[in-house]
Amino acid sequence: MIANLVQLAAEEEQSPLIPPGPELLVGTIAFAIVFFFFWKKLLPNINKVLEERREAIEGGIEKAEAAQVEAQSVLEQYKAQLAEARHEAARLRQEAQEQGATLIAEMRAEGQRQREEIVAAGHAQIEADRKAASSALRQDVGKLATDLAGKLVGESLEDHARQSRVIDRFLDGLDEAATKAEASR
């Protein structure tokens, strides 16, 4: 096809780069009409759309920058609140530990006091039981001793007053001997 055009141009004896005069004139007028239409009608609309897009992009960038600044301030506030909450938690933990230590000390003191009361009550009960057992033992030993003495003598030794005095002196002598034996150890 190009070869045909070149051949056709050679026959007309014109350069293939320069069109004939009437075609050049019609092409120039058509170009001027299209150029004028684009310049008057389309170019302002295109510029308007491009300007709106530029403003929207710049506005979006400004909004994004404002949002970023706001997000940064919110982040700083959050970090400050978090640090304050951690400080408060540490303070509360310290107070709880101190209260726990105080409660433990109070409970130990109360336990010690109760233990001492229980030990004292136990000693008092043991002493009362020892005295009761000693008294019962004295009576039983006295009765057995008088019965044995009565059998040995062959007479009844039923006088309680005299019997109690004799038994008490005998048992007191035994208690003194036991006390001296313990002291010598």
UniProtKB/TrEMBL annotation:
Q: Which Pfam families match?
A: ATP-synt_B (PF00430)
**Coiled-coil segments, which residues?**
47-102
> What SUPFAM superfamilies would the database entry show?
F1F0 ATP synthase subunit B, membrane domain (SSF81573)
Q: Which UniProt keywords apply?
A: ATP synthesis, Cell membrane, CF(0), Coiled coil, Hydrogen ion transport, Ion transport, Membrane, Transmembrane, Transmembrane helix, Transport
Q: Which cellular compartments is it found in? A: Cell membrane
Q: Which PANTHER family match?
A: ATP SYNTHASE SUBUNIT B, ATP SYNTHASE SUBUNIT B', CHLOROPLASTIC
Q: What is this protein called?
A: ATP synthase subunit b
